[in-house]
Specification:
This protein is an alpha+beta fold and 747 residues long. Helix content is 21%, strand content 26%. Strand 23, helix 4 and strand 24 form a beta-alpha-beta unit.
Amino acid sequence: MIRHRPSGSGHPYSVDTEQRSPVVPEAGATAVLGVRASGTVETVTAEFEWRPEAGTIETQSLPLARVASSSRGRTEDGGHLASAQARLARAVGGWQVETPELRFGGTYRYRFTAGHTDGRTERTRWFTFRAARWQPVEAGVAATGASRIVPGSVSVLHDGERARRIRFAVPLADGEHVTGFGERYDALDHRGAQLDSVVFEQYKNQGAERKTYLPMPFAHVVGGDGWGFHVRTSRRVWFDIGASTPSELQVEAEVDAPYDAAGADLLTVAFFDGSPTDVLRGFLAQASSPTELPDWVFRLWASGNEWNTQAEVIRQVDLHREHDIPVGSVVIEAWSDESTFTAFRDARAAVTEDGAPHRLADFEFPADGAWPDPKAMTDELHARDIRLHLWQIPLIKMRPHPRDQVAADAAAAIRENVLILEEAPDGSLRPYRNRGWWFPLGLMPDLTDERAAHWWTEKRRYLVEEIDVDGFKTDGGEHAWGSDLVYLDCRRGDEKNNTFPVAYAAAYGDLLRSAGKAPVTFSRAGFTGSQAHGAFWAGDENSTWEAFRWSMVAGLSAAASGIVYWGWDLAGFSGDVPSAELFLRSSAAATFVPIMQYHSEFNHHRTPSRDRTPWNIQERSGDDRVIPIFRRYAQLRERLVPYLAEQAAITIATARPLMRPLYFDHPADPAVWSTEPQWMLGDDLLIAPVLSEGATTWPVYLPAGAWVDAWTGEQFDGGTTVTVDVPLDTIPVFVRRSAAERMLPLF
């Protein structure tokens, strides 16, 4: 076997052995050409041709050298349902060669020949590319609003036939802060940094890795005139935010269009002027406005990956009742057969050979099975005023080799043409096989296509209409990798991959709406347009203080980008249980974000348990304060629901975030950028979570205005930092004095 994929696996942060690097080489530089080959290959050569637009074809033979084989970046076992790609590794090796210096104005053509130890030879097809160069242009970027593009800063990377990238700059004044960019974990102010906008599954440590599930090419510039911008593209965009040139924000974006030397516009950038709320309102008018969700989403959400039987789910909700801890939603992740993700584990039904949807009456639920009566369980939860959400993944599982209903579904998906496609080694199109680490080689429905999305969600309709589930945890929207993917509208992965998680949540929301239910989805991945589709959580994270801090920054960043219903796995979900202190500090903070929820990773039912329930944390830590303090905050959260619902409605009407960074209300106050993470929750509550282990006091910056300590009633004038005592059961919360009469009784 010998394989070359010019653009590699599509991992945005890793170069694969078998790809061309860079994918779009530049004239005057070189490129590396690589293959992966089976263990029987002992030599590899590349026939490398230069075909100028006029003149003689030049041919060279380039011998490849053995190199260490790498693919898809770092692989790591992701816990529940995840599988390290290394488990599927075959006996393959890497081979690479560096090209001569590349020239502009012609086409390069190359192919590889491998010699095997048994004397056989094997040859790939021909591949082509044209070397590109940067060309200054007068136009190229269309601006709406008051353009701030620096004159003379626009240039295009083109190969003489097609434009591949475009870049430009906007000015940054002293004292301006740049924030937004979707959900970002490492900082609120990105001045001096570099980042990009590509949907990516970063399993844990998102703040350190500076990667995100939910990027947006949108930013606020706060502290000067007040403005912002939106690069109106779904392709990848890179931002140099004063890192290279302190007085400039440089933007570089992928494009793919015929090159026009006259400078036809290749990209549109919208500029917005005004306050942060004005800027966000302008962006949402282009992206999508949030959809108001029912009040019950503001109650406590509870889940654990080991709640994988009906008996365990009921046991856990019984424990909530026993401990007088109100719960509003239960999410069941490990409910399905782990194959179709449409049927409960142990349920039996005849295979629909044509892939047609099942109805509830088609299933038999064994009395001694994991889920003897899902409908009765759902009814019991509803009788207790608890909503039920089921986990989903947008893939057809193909490993191990599918059989029964999964095989029928896969065959039907291919036959009905509802799948994303990819380029095969011979250049033809075939169904895309998932290149990520989770469910490797799975088939992926094109949920950006209305017909394909309907085909997919109809198979889940009985869950909504007959089982009566209330929502879906739409997990794993990051699996569309590669510019070579082809969607059903014939657009390719470089343009469509970022939009997939938006369409994924929208498809499930449409299913719920069609059954008369609210479109409550719970996603971790998204992009521009996700604001309209359900709720979000910050993804997979460790139970550490550092991760706690990153999550608070992520929530503020997401809110500044228009995400209203946001939460995180309080105190983390992965690894051993958090300390009692971390759990309680996180629980207190979660009381004052839009979605309050706890969750835990699968641990193969080993003991001691790693559930993040308050009773398990209390048992594991030996700290008998855990349940009483958690109860206190869960009950406070119940009392806050009417306020949260009222303020969410205001947010949706005005674009003023529900979980609001302080710079929204105080853009001219430089002190709001030097505080620990703080926010306004609606118009009347200022929240300052305790983010350090062992803290007994905590600094709180009170911006301009009059404030009242929610716990003590002490009054303060704003424009100063106060230090407050923070025993384990206390999070600093301040009430706007004008709202004290109605808000203080809640505390």
